[in-house]
Fold this protein.
Amino acid sequence: SHYWNIPQIAFAAAAFELTNRQQYRNFFRILPSFQFNAASIAGVVRYFGWRQMAVITQNEALFTGVTDTIRTIFNDEGWVLDDSAVIETNANPFPYDAAFSWTRNREYRVIFINTYQVYTYEILCEAFNRGMLSPQYVWITIGSFSKGWFRGLSSCSESSISQ
Protein backbone atom coordinates (compact mmCIF):
# COMPACT_ATOMS: atom_id res chain seq x y z
CA SER A 1 0.00 0.00 0.00
CA HIS A 2 2.93 2.32 0.65
CA TYR A 3 4.32 2.22 -2.87
CA TRP A 4 1.00 2.68 -4.63
CA ASN A 5 -0.46 5.10 -2.07
CA ILE A 6 -3.38 2.78 -1.32
CA PRO A 7 -4.95 2.88 2.14
CA GLN A 8 -4.79 -0.38 4.07
CA ILE A 9 -7.31 -0.98 6.86
CA ALA A 10 -6.86 -3.81 9.33
CA PHE A 11 -9.46 -4.99 11.81
CA ALA A 12 -7.16 -6.92 14.16
CA ALA A 13 -3.60 -5.61 13.86
CA ALA A 14 -2.54 -4.57 17.36
CA ALA A 15 1.26 -4.50 17.09
CA PHE A 16 2.80 -1.25 18.31
CA GLU A 17 5.22 -1.05 15.36
CA LEU A 18 2.28 -0.33 13.05
CA THR A 19 1.77 2.99 14.86
CA ASN A 20 4.84 4.42 13.10
CA ARG A 21 3.20 6.88 10.68
CA GLN A 22 6.49 7.48 8.83
CA GLN A 23 6.82 3.84 7.89
CA TYR A 24 3.11 2.95 7.65
CA ARG A 25 1.50 6.18 6.52
CA ASN A 26 -1.34 4.43 4.65
CA PHE A 27 -2.06 1.87 7.35
CA PHE A 28 -5.14 2.27 9.54
CA ARG A 29 -6.70 -0.04 12.06
CA ILE A 30 -9.95 -0.48 13.88
CA LEU A 31 -8.40 -2.17 16.92
CA PRO A 32 -6.20 0.09 19.06
CA SER A 33 -2.55 -0.79 19.55
CA PHE A 34 -1.71 -3.18 22.39
CA GLN A 35 0.58 -0.38 23.55
CA PHE A 36 -2.42 1.17 25.31
CA ASN A 37 -2.56 -1.90 27.54
CA ALA A 38 0.63 -0.70 29.24
CA ALA A 39 -1.05 2.52 30.40
CA SER A 40 -4.08 0.53 31.54
CA ILE A 41 -1.94 -1.83 33.59
CA ALA A 42 -0.11 1.13 35.13
CA GLY A 43 -3.49 2.68 35.99
CA VAL A 44 -4.55 -0.48 37.81
CA VAL A 45 -1.23 -0.60 39.69
CA ARG A 46 -1.60 3.07 40.66
CA TYR A 47 -5.26 2.67 41.71
CA PHE A 48 -4.53 -0.19 44.09
CA GLY A 49 -1.34 1.40 45.44
CA TRP A 50 0.90 -1.45 44.36
CA ARG A 51 4.59 -0.65 43.93
CA GLN A 52 5.98 -3.81 42.39
CA MET A 53 4.94 -6.32 39.77
CA ALA A 54 6.34 -9.22 37.75
CA VAL A 55 5.64 -9.60 34.03
CA ILE A 56 5.65 -12.83 32.05
CA THR A 57 6.11 -11.91 28.39
CA GLN A 58 5.81 -13.96 25.23
CA ASN A 59 8.78 -13.24 22.96
CA GLU A 60 6.86 -11.60 20.11
CA ALA A 61 6.81 -7.95 19.12
CA LEU A 62 3.14 -7.63 20.05
CA PHE A 63 3.98 -8.43 23.68
CA THR A 64 7.57 -7.21 24.08
CA GLY A 65 6.50 -3.70 23.03
CA VAL A 66 3.94 -3.63 25.83
CA THR A 67 6.51 -4.84 28.36
CA ASP A 68 8.99 -2.19 27.17
CA THR A 69 6.40 0.54 27.74
CA ILE A 70 5.47 -0.86 31.16
CA ARG A 71 9.16 -0.84 32.08
CA THR A 72 9.40 2.84 31.14
CA ILE A 73 6.28 3.72 33.15
CA PHE A 74 7.52 1.78 36.19
CA ASN A 75 10.93 3.47 36.01
CA ASP A 76 9.27 6.91 35.78
CA GLU A 77 7.05 6.12 38.79
CA GLY A 78 9.86 4.61 40.85
CA TRP A 79 8.09 1.25 41.02
CA VAL A 80 9.81 -2.16 40.91
CA LEU A 81 9.30 -4.36 37.85
CA ASP A 82 10.70 -7.81 37.20
CA ASP A 83 10.39 -8.42 33.48
CA SER A 84 12.89 -11.25 33.29
CA ALA A 85 10.33 -13.97 32.52
CA VAL A 86 10.29 -14.38 28.73
CA ILE A 87 8.62 -17.29 26.98
CA GLU A 88 9.73 -18.36 23.53
CA THR A 89 6.86 -18.94 21.13
CA ASN A 90 6.33 -22.63 20.29
CA ALA A 91 8.64 -23.80 23.06
CA ASN A 92 8.14 -27.50 23.62
CA PRO A 93 7.87 -28.53 26.37
CA PHE A 94 6.42 -25.44 27.99
CA PRO A 95 9.23 -23.49 29.73
CA TYR A 96 7.84 -23.33 33.28
CA ASP A 97 11.23 -22.38 34.73
CA ALA A 98 11.46 -19.40 32.37
CA ALA A 99 7.86 -18.35 33.02
CA PHE A 100 8.42 -18.38 36.78
CA SER A 101 11.97 -17.01 36.83
CA TRP A 102 10.75 -13.96 38.78
CA THR A 103 10.11 -16.19 41.82
CA ARG A 104 13.87 -16.63 42.36
CA ASN A 105 14.70 -12.99 43.08
CA ARG A 106 11.88 -11.55 45.12
CA GLU A 107 8.38 -12.24 46.37
CA TYR A 108 6.01 -10.68 43.86
CA ARG A 109 2.28 -10.83 44.51
CA VAL A 110 1.06 -9.01 41.39
CA ILE A 111 1.84 -10.76 38.11
CA PHE A 112 0.92 -9.58 34.63
CA ILE A 113 0.68 -12.33 31.99
CA ASN A 114 1.52 -10.75 28.64
CA THR A 115 0.98 -13.72 26.29
CA TYR A 116 -1.48 -15.37 23.95
CA GLN A 117 -4.25 -17.33 25.66
CA VAL A 118 -2.71 -20.80 25.26
CA TYR A 119 0.36 -19.67 27.23
CA THR A 120 -1.81 -17.82 29.72
CA TYR A 121 -3.57 -21.06 30.49
CA GLU A 122 -0.31 -22.94 31.00
CA ILE A 123 0.94 -20.22 33.34
CA LEU A 124 -2.28 -20.12 35.39
CA CYS A 125 -2.29 -23.92 35.60
CA GLU A 126 1.28 -23.92 36.88
CA ALA A 127 0.41 -21.15 39.35
CA PHE A 128 -2.40 -23.36 40.64
CA ASN A 129 -0.01 -26.29 40.98
CA ARG A 130 2.41 -24.06 42.94
CA GLY A 131 -0.36 -22.81 45.23
CA MET A 132 -0.05 -19.24 43.96
CA LEU A 133 -3.73 -18.39 44.27
CA SER A 134 -5.94 -15.46 45.18
CA PRO A 135 -6.10 -13.59 47.51
CA GLN A 136 -2.32 -13.83 48.12
CA TYR A 137 -1.59 -13.40 44.41
CA VAL A 138 -3.15 -11.18 41.76
CA TRP A 139 -2.90 -12.46 38.19
CA ILE A 140 -3.59 -9.89 35.45
CA THR A 141 -4.25 -10.95 31.85
CA ILE A 142 -5.01 -8.96 28.73
CA GLY A 143 -6.69 -9.64 25.45
CA SER A 144 -9.91 -11.28 24.53
CA PHE A 145 -10.25 -14.94 25.29
CA SER A 146 -12.61 -17.22 23.46
CA LYS A 147 -15.34 -18.98 25.41
CA GLY A 148 -13.94 -22.07 27.08
CA TRP A 149 -10.36 -21.10 26.18
CA PHE A 150 -9.07 -22.99 29.21
CA ARG A 151 -10.58 -26.38 28.35
CA GLY A 152 -8.31 -29.26 27.43
CA LEU A 153 -5.10 -27.30 27.08
CA SER A 154 -3.17 -28.66 30.02
CA SER A 155 -3.24 -30.89 33.06
CA CYS A 156 -5.45 -28.55 35.10
CA SER A 157 -9.13 -29.18 35.41
CA GLU A 158 -11.73 -26.52 34.70
CA SER A 159 -12.47 -26.18 38.44
CA SER A 160 -8.74 -25.78 39.18
CA ILE A 161 -8.23 -22.98 36.70
CA SER A 162 -11.27 -21.06 37.96
CA GLN A 163 -9.71 -20.84 41.42
The chain has a mean pLDDT of 83. The radius of gyration is 17 Å.
